[in-house]
Amino acid sequence: MIVVLESDSVRFSESKLSDSVFACIYLQYNVDQYFPECGWDDFAEVILEWWVDGAVSLLENGGSSVFRFMDGDFSFEIKMIGNKKSLIELRENSKILTTKDLDFMEFCQSLTVACNSLLRRTQEISKNKEIFSSLNARLNVLRNILKSSSLTLE
Predict the structure, then answer these.
(1) DSSP string of 74-131?
(2) Is residue 29 classed exposed, middle or buried when 0-12, 13-18 and 19+ CB atoms within 10 A define those classes?
């Protein structure tokens, strides 16, 4: 189960009242299965910040964490079971659609890649190197926890 962010879909809101960033972002599992669906378009910056916070919480505290999409009523919950096992439940309207074993480190790696891709693409579009310092700061916390706990991302 990996986070996919389609970097060519990254764009700023066209409204003068908002500086939100949208992109196609979703989970991919198996070869051709996606959640909520392939090409899902959402508020990429916001949900990536939430998801990084959720991953950090799991690494620091264990237990479980809910990861939400902004559009629609889609979410997934990751549960840490024992030392190295984790499960993911994919949900729509609070109804569990499926439960799968999860390689949490692979998930964290793909989350890091998605964040980096969003940061790079938004800097290219806006020419503002300081954009999304909040997402970047959160991502650095995740990287440091992974590094200090001897968990390496390849």
Answers:
(1) EEEEEEEETTTEEEEEEEETTEEEEEEEE-HHHHHHHHHHHHHHHHHHHHHHH--TTT
(2) middle
The gap from C-alpha 52 to its chain's centroid, in whole angstroms, comes to: 6
pLDDT tens across 15-28, in order?
666 668 889 999 99
Tokens, residue 45:
């910056």
Model pLDDT for residues 34-93, shown as the tens digit of each residue:
999 999 999 999 999 999 999 999 989 989 999 999 988 999 999 998 777 899 999 999
Structure tokens at 103: 């390689």
Host H or E run for residue 143: helix 133-148
pLDDT at 151 over 60: no
User: What are the boundaries of each domain within the chain?
Assistant: 2-148
- CATH architecture of the domain 2-148 equals 2-Layer Sandwich (3.30)
